[in-house]
Specification:
Layout (H helix, E strand, L loop, with lengths): L3 H8 L4 E6 L2 H8 L6 E3 L1 H9 L9 H13 L5 E4 L7 H14 L3 E5 L18 H14 L6 E6 L1 H5 L1 H14 L3 E4 L5 H10 L5 E3 L11 H6 L4 E4 L2 H20 L11 H7 L2 H17 L4
Parallel strand pairs: 1-2, 1-8, 2-3, 3-4, 4-5, 5-6, 7-8
Helix pairs in contact: 4-5, 5-6, 6-8
Organism: Roseicella frigidaeris
Protein name: Carboxyvinyl-carboxyphosphonate phosphorylmutase
GO molecular function: oxo-acid-lyase activity
Length: 293
């Protein structure tokens, strides 16, 4: 079942900030922070799971189990990237049903041609708007829970211009999308134009080093946005920390740099070892005393 808190947040016009998660370490850390939503990033999940570029290589089968593990391991509502729905209309229906059953509260679908490319990278091409509108309609019909949210993304801005991207956003809203995601506007003025033109909760994609300016939450809300995702923040930070730690080990021949990082005791707590130890202690005592209760 989808978590109704996320849909309620949009209804109450509370701005939603969603950090990107890509594995269970990032998911557990973000889940403890008190965010209203977490975002399963396609780029980060494909990179961490398969070690590949987010270029349409990962399949539904590659992603759904990974997405489900993260969603079930979090108390926070989760929205997950599902690329193009992994095919045509029948694939979209199957994907929506599978992601919803996996425990996410929302799914993101995009209007790129297959194989898709990562947003903010060159060479992205889009399918006709009417074809994507059918995907949105199928997605809305396929969901079982009305609290399950459909995020419709258009990548038209980069190749077809802002006006076409806005037109598509309106079409996808009319087709039944709950949240509209116009990918990679290139200025604050463009973001303002999107906010004025589309009457639906809008998602801003804050990618460090991407095409869109990084703006504070208050400014995004003033421009008409209801939500911001930060898909890369986690895996960029993790990669930088790993690079520093491994470089120190190679150069110095020891792991003293780890003292500056998360700490083994904190990691064992994060992964639930205290509960495991308590379980083992309790049942060891029961075995020793012959307690059958």
């Amino acid at each position: 079942m989808a978590d109704p808190r996320l849909k309620a947040a949009f209804a109450e016009r509370r701005f939603v900030t969603a950090p990107g998660i890509f594995d269970m370490i990032s998911a557990r850390i973000a889940d403890a922070m008190g965010f209203a939503c977490l975002y399963v990033t396609g780029f980060g999940t494909v990179a961490s799971h398969l070690g590949l570029a987010d270029a349409g290589i990962a399949t539904y089968s590659d992603m759904v189990a990974r997405v489900g593990t993260m969603a079930r391991g979090c108390r926070t509502p989760v929205i997950a990237d599902a690329d193009t729905g992994y095919g045509g209309l029948l694939n979209v229906r199957h994907t929506v049903m599978g992601y919803e059953a996996a425990g996410v509260s929302g799914i993101q679908l995009e209007d790129q041609e297959m194989p898709k490319k990562c947003g903010h990278t060159p060479g992205r091409r889009v399918i006709p708007a009417e074809e994507m509108a059918l995907k949105v309609r199928v997605a809305a019909e396929a969901r079982r829970d009305p609290d399950f949210l459909i995020v419709a993304r258009t990548d038209a801005r980069t190749t077809l211009g802002l006006e076409e991207a806005i037109r598509r956003g309106r079409i996808y809203a009319e087709a039944g999308a709950d949240i509209i995601f116009v990918e990679s506007p290139e200025s604050e003025a463009e973001m303002q134009a999107i906010g004025r033109a589309i009457d639906r909760p809008l998602l801003a994609n804050m990618v460090e080093g991407g095409r869109t300016p990084i703006l504070p939450a208050a400014r995004l809300q003033a421009l008409g946005y209801a939500m911001a995702i930060y898909p890369a923040i986690g895996f960029l930070a993790a990669a930088a920390a790993l690079e520093r730690a491994y470089a120190h080990l190679k150069e110095a021949g020891d792991s003293t740099a780890i003292g500056e990082s998360y700490g083994f005791a904190r990691m064992t707590a994060l992964m639930g070892f205290p509960e495991v130890w308590e379980f083992e202690r309790r049942w060891a005592e029961a075995a020793a005393t012959g307690d059958k209760a």
